[in-house]
Amino acid sequence: MNKTIEMIAKICQEHRFEEKLLFVPSYATGHQIGEYLAKTGTSWINLRVTTAFGYAQELVALDLAAGGIRVIESHERLVIIEKLFRSNNSSGKKVRYFEDAEEIPGILRCLSNAIHELRMGGFDHRKVDQNAFIIREKGKELVGLLDSYEHFLNKNRLIDYPGVLNLAIDKLEKGKKVQKDKRTMVLSDFPVTQLEEEFIRLAGGKGLIVVDHTRPKGLSCPVRFFSFSVGKGNKRTKPRTDIDLLPWLFESEKAPKPLRDASVALLHALGESNEVREVFRRIFSDGTHLDDVEILVTATDPYISIIYETTTALMVPATFGSGIPVAYSRPGKALLLYLKWFADDFGANHLIRLFSGRYLDLDACQLQGEKPSPGKAAAIIRDAAIGWGRERYQNRLKALANTYRQKAEEARAEGEEEKAQRAEHSAARIEWISRFIEELMGTTPDSESDNAVTTQEICAGALDFLRKFCRIAGDLDAPAKSRLINVLDCLKHAPSLS
Hints:
Blueprint: H1 3-14, E1 19-23, H2 27-39, E2 47-50, H3 52-67, E3 70-71, H4 74-90, H5 107-120, H6 136-155, E4 158-159, H7 161-173, E5 182-187, H8 194-204, E6 209-211, H9 272-286, H10 303-314, H11 330-343, H12 348-356, H13 374-383, H14 390-413, H15 417-441, H16 455-469, H17 477-492
Parallel strand pairs: 1-2, 1-5, 3-4, 5-6
Helix pairs in contact: 3-7, 4-5, 4-6, 7-8, 9-10, 11-12, 12-13, 14-15, 16-17
């Protein structure tokens, strides 16, 4: 049993009938802790795991509802920052340092993250010192954007993650007492921002328990971690397995002698894919129960994608702490191709992939006539030599259909009725595809007008596409489609600057 689980288990046993609150970095981490406690036979009755944001929301939920204030998500923050930046750039507040920054890939996301980090650090536009920036113009414009963002949230009765924490902190400071019979704990091995630390310390009061973790020897504790006071909880114990020697990884010369009990093994492989394959070979050869297996990776990319593809191919049940990227689902892949199709001036190669990948529901429009298979539909578009351009689809498909009709007439004139019928069937399928594509194009914004296409218009089209044309074929597809619809709907209805 590691130090973290051992300490939580001890508190659960000593205070079984008291309410216990444990702050964790994510609910997935809390779920893992609960599973470990159950495996050790520890009763964790009355233990509630939560995050700083989750608990803050609980405290201020009634206040937000009474004031008609809505909590925004990170993707909404990005859209708001984009609107404010463009508004400042096109108004009298002509920016200089960030001029033409929209042309730099990812710059708006960087600005959005910078605004979020400043607010999580407890800063508002009044607290940021413009003189602290090496380039004052940069500080001035960033503070101006932060001011506009705060004003926008207040005006539209919106609140973000830092705003919820600030509201909860104010509520705790103004009189909400911490229950004396409640034990509040926080893990010591995850970084917290200034607002999160302040909130957790207020929620826990003087009795806040910092659950220590096994610390690597020779490394100082990160500043953003909760500090653990040295005491009996930190006393050294004699290593019982080679796993217990891992804290000496950065001070190997001071480590005790290895026990060579095969609890730790090293391997090397050529490339990440071979690494993952070897891990699964060892899991299967050892006969380890999958419930007892946990794979930790140094980076999300590319390991998560490789592990997901491997478990899917081997039909091995697996859960992912960080979640499965929506791009692995059928709706996610379909939406990406749909957006690329629109962005590349309706390039036919993207539409061919939509059909050949069986991402589209061909029964969506209930069209009459001879419906082709997805593969045949892709072949028809390829044969039509469309290239790109909205207006070329109907013209090229009509020309292809006429070609088959002409072949039918020629075959019939030569007495080859069967060949003529095949050509007529091909023409009918082309006409069906033409009508289907016309319906599909109806979901896209009008890019021919002089006005720039807005984010709301793109989101509205993407919503229509997902709801009407996206095919569901697996367990992952339905929740992925639902999540995408929720996100796009939020972006579609994001408040305007007017």
